[in-house]
Amino acid sequence: MQLEKGRLSIACVCMVLGFMLVIQFKSTEDIRASQPSQRVEELAARLHQAEAENKELEAEIRDLRGMSGDAKSEKITDDIMMISGMTPLEGPGVIITIDDSAKKAKMENDPNLYLVHDEDILKVVNELRAAGAEALSINGQRLTANSEIRCAGPTISVNNVRSAPPFEIRAIGDKDNLVNSINMRGGVADSLKVWGINLTIQPLDNVWIPAYKATTKYKLATTSSKEEETK
Amino acid sequence: MIYAVVGLLVGGTLGFLVPFGIPAGYSSLFSVALMACMDSVFGGIKAACSGTFDDKIFISGFFTNSLMAAFLVYVGDRLGIDLYYVALLAFGLRIFNNLGFIRQHLLKKH
Q: Where does the chain cross the membrane (chain B) (predicted)?
């Protein structure tokens, strides 16, 4: 065989080939071992958020520690009043009005599609809450933790009070965030516009939201001292 | 044959000992160069089988092939042409052709 002649050259070439093979193998392993960079970014963002939240909570703890007993209980009472809806609130926010479609229903389409339903209101409220709305009301009914939004024949019942369209949803929160959450592409406003349902958003510097008017009664539930469920 | 195996082993251990790898951006260039090298080696074995093996052609082919392949892929990358796949396909086809030739030669010999 003529192979004998080029022994040295073949050894040299094979050496280079082996070197390259191993380097390539090593870098492929490295890429596989390291987390995809997108995942890293996502985790970093989540860490930032958690840290910010942590700092906020620490500040709150410090505030509460620094207060005297009376001031402390007053602040807690205020917070509870605001959360429960027992007190009217005001602040920057939006007023959204939703009304039935002005379009004439086409024969082949279900006329129900041109009306405002409890689900549409629910979707809007859900978006607003996700966008950080601090307080909400529908046609003068404050939304509390126990409020329902339910279909009641041609009307919609909120806090067991019925009201007919047009519906006026008031929300306190960051104006831009609230408007964008409703108007985002493919969002609630887009899907309602298909059927001609009138939805207008009005950002305002001062929105007043009424208090929850009915009395809260807890007939069955009692407070528990258990922090965790025990079996 | 022994020389080739020894060369491979020496190169492999060298590669393991060297602390750096290929940055992710250049890994495609490197893999094309690697394909070109493998193509040259199989071409060399084929030439040896058919008795037309030439030292100079083999060595020069080995280095220029791999460098040119990496360079072409780099240029293609700059111009927005995916020469990477073309090179992989071309070299892959040649490698399998050569392999087929070597197999036939070995079968005929024995």
A: 57-76, 82-102
**Distance from C-alpha of A26 to C-alpha of A23, rounded to nearest angstrom:** 5
Residue-by-residue pLDDT tens, chain B, 110 positions: 677 788 888 888 888 888 777 777 788 888 888 899 889 888 888 888 888 878 888 888 888 989 999 998 889 888 888 888 888 899 999 999 999 998 998 888 77
* C-beta of residue A142 within 8 angstroms of C-beta of residue A209: yes
Token pair of A177, please? 């965030």
Domain boundaries, chain A: 10-72, 84-209
Beta bridge partners of A135: A172
Strand pairing partners for A198? A99
Cα–Cα distance, B24 to A125 (Å, whole number): 47
Distance of alpha carbon A55 from alpha carbon A32, whole angstroms? 36
Q: Name the nearest CA neighbour of A141 among A177, A178, A88.
A: A88
- Bridge-based pairing state of the strands A141-142 and A149-152: unpaired
What's the DSSP call for residue A105? P
Q: Does B79 touch chain A (CB under 8 A)?
A: no
| Best CA proximity match to A75, nearest among A58, A61, A94, A88 | A61
N-to-C CA span, chain B: 18
* Helices vs. strands in chain A: H and E counts, helices first: 6, 8
Q: Which residues of B touch A9 (CB under 8 A)?
A: 55, 58-59
- CA A36 to chain B, closest CA, distance in angstroms equals 12
